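Researcher: Quick one. two chains, 224 residues in total.
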Amino acid sequence: GQQVMQIPQYQHVQEGEDFTTYCNSSTTLSNIQWYKQRPGGHPVFLIQLVKSGEVKKQKRLTFQFGEAKKNSSLHITATQTTDVGTYFCAGLGFQKLVFGTGTRLLVSP
Amino acid sequence: SAVISQKPSRDICQRGTSLTIQCQVDSQVTMMFWYRQQPGQSLTLIATANQGSEATYESGFVIDKFPISRPNLTFSTLTVSNMSPEDSSIYLCSVLGDSGYNEQFFGPGTRLTVL
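Model:
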């Protein structure tokens, strides 16, 4: 079945440093979504990318969808303590999401 | 966006017993999803529940172990049957948003511990 892997599994940064998580799918994706899960919370939708090579920005967050539609990345510029949590990519199949393995981000003040 | 509530928020159960988790949505939705998230892990889809039809289970999950009800467009239940410690997880329900982006809105989850 479809597998979606993320690296790194965990990253600890100092506040103000940048952070990037990479998402790789074993199959071509029709689109990809990103979610953030705060500690003790539930996943919250951030964004969806549909087009090959698409880049979208949300304030300090930049999302990219690869040209082959098999990989994606999330980059956070100048992290803040509020960015703490686990970031999941999720590939959309037929109305079903396959979640990536997740990257846990810890930000120290 | 949909507002979703789940009951109970957490429970501690003895092995061999069953627990039914309720999911209530503040609007009518066609598709509801049940996920399992084991400690420190990603989310795994258990089944998709459509109103008026049998739930569709993913590989590795069976109806006898995880029976699901979907009596109307705002409510669903997931039962974890004959529990073992390996069933200790967070169970989340979710629904599709109606913005056209196919985003999913998740309930707060039910944290289950099986002793």
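Chain A has a mean pLDDT of 94.
Researcher: Thanks, that's what I needed.
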